[in-house]
Amino acid sequence: MKRDWKNDAFPAAPVEPLPPPRKARTRARANPPAVVLPAQARPKSIDLNPWEPPAPKRRAKAADVITHDTDVTLEMAEQLIDEGIDIRAAGTMVELAALWNMRPALGRPTEAPRLTDRTPRGRKSGTPGRRMARIVFLGKYTTTGIVLRDDEEAEEHRGAKIFLRRWKKKLARETLGKLQAPNKTMRQVFSEILTDMDPGMSQDPEITAPYRRLLGDCAQLEECPALADTRISELPGNIAETYVLFRIQQQIKSQSPDNPNPRTTDPATADGHVDSFFLVIRKFCEKYFLPTRTFKRLKFRRKPVRWLSFWQLWKLIRFCRGYALDEAGRIAGRHDMAKKYACVLRFILIYVYGGTRKNNIRTLLWGMDTEFGHIDVRAGEIQRQGPEARITNKSRLPSELIGSLRTLVEAWFEEDMAARRKLGNPKDRYVHVLHDENGYQLAEKRIDTLLGEVCAGAGIPKVNAHALKHTGVTLVSRANMPVQDVEQAFSTNFTTLVTTYRHLHGKWFARDLKPFRPDDLNLWRLRKFALRDREEVYAAAA
Fold this sequence. Notes:
542 residues; mainly alpha; hpI Integrase, Chain A; three-stranded antiparallel β-sheet; 8 strands; elongated
């Protein structure tokens, strides 16, 4: 009986096309065409937990056809391994994409990695040893180090299944790391590592604080053109030295031309950025199983912190309040520039009692803002920046007002509000804590100029603005303030305090700590705890 193939219930087998001519096959090898895969189910994945129902294997989120310029993801590389394709043979990403396009058709038997057991024999005695689970892939064996009992099979052993899954992921990551990682720029490396280390919604300061510091350091590192746009495989061995020298040049350019010592630089901050650079490189190499690169590091001695004596600080405050001083520091009369230097007085006291940095003090407001910081007189707090401010490697956390600053801030607030009411509440005058004699915000470099004039009038060498913070930390610590309170008041972490202020270790870590009284932080009471300046001693003797 002749069978009717047209009305048969079974579909006819697909007819394979004839092979192309030789020239067409040569062109196809040079540029293999994209192959459209039928949308069918893949082989089932191995169940890693025998107590739970098997979950469907996660398909690679990619199109069925990819071109040679498409990146192969980690999931796609694992899928190629499951199909028995040796991805280690690919020398470039183009070849790996070609392997994805030319992978075997569905339904054909594959040589996927599988688990098997082996009973090795002793080298001398020849007796059977322990049964070991191992992985077979493309005719090569990889031991798992798992010993099987007599009633266990390697395919059903839970630990062996987990080892097989991790082995495939490691193989895929090693291959992608060998092909992809050398072509990534440092800007891409920073973004990738920061994404991996993102704490998410965590509020634990032990997790968020290092991440914020690393985020700020990476932003600073990306400003160096010799580092950010260079591939990781092309980084020279002296890239760390290049970055430190770049930061030193930036410091020199930012200094005022009338500075008597214009080449005064401190590479300590840049050296901290280099630490974060090494951390990113190490984590990136560990992620892709690459050999860790080594770079030459610039060695230098940290400069000791400079702080003012109480006598020098007192002379600055006196001159800002309108007193003219002689060479010995005694009051010799008055001058008519007290209103001009009132902003410098506020700047000095906020820096001494809180360590708030220069740019943050200049933008402080009397009310809350989304970007800039403010002083809350009613709560007695200083918010160093707004909730939407740019994240940097500095903490800039809020803290309570301490010492004489709390009383002085209340007087300053009432004075500014009275001036605003007198002028009809203008929007641009007496809004900032630091302002000129007319109530307008100070320019960016205006405070440096005024501070230099005050130092010259007080008869002391011009000081760096950050030396005021070192002065405040030294004075309050000598007044027996605990290091934990100093950390909170000056928004400086414990590690920075210990490594920077070594001259205060005897006050912080003494065996018999003296009791601390908050009233001792008042400005005039700090005098009895401070070291006496030689000018003060000689002036008193005269």
